[in-house]
Amino acid sequence: MAADDTELLKRLLAGEQQAFRELVSTYQGAMRAVAYAIVGNRHADEAVQDAWLAVVRNLVSFESRS
User: Fold this and answer.
1) Cα(65)–Cα(23) distance, integer angstroms
2) Which of 3, 10, 15, 20 has the most CB atoms lying inside 10 A of its own CB?
3) Is the pLDDT of residue 64 over 90?
4) What's the domain count of the chain?
5) Taking a C-beta distance cutoff of 8 angstroms, is the pair 35, 48 a contact?
6) Would residue 66 count as lying in a domain?
């Protein structure tokens, strides 16, 4: 995990809303590109939304192993 990502994760775990906005801003494009390649344009946005929901739901149980 990059140092910037580690710091961002710490801020997320502390409940900082701006950190989540930064996370989305940083990774939204790449996530959509991958989703588009896998499921096509019709379902890409839904797949990305589902992924972000999973991030939010599982953030508290995240364990950094790097």
Assistant:
1) 19
2) 20
3) no
4) 1
5) yes
6) no
The reply to whether 40 falls in a domain is yes
CA distance 63 to 66: 9
Model confidence pLDDT, tens digit, residues 5-33: 889 999 999 999 999 999 999 999 999 99
Q: Out of 15-19, 42-46, 57-61, which region has the weakest mean confidence (pLDDT)? A: 57-61
Task: Provide the residue range defining the domain that includes 32.
Answer: 26-57
pTM over 0.85: no
Q: What's the full length of the chain, in residues?
A: 66
| 8 contacts: CB under 8 Å, gap ≥ 6 | 19, 22, 23, 26
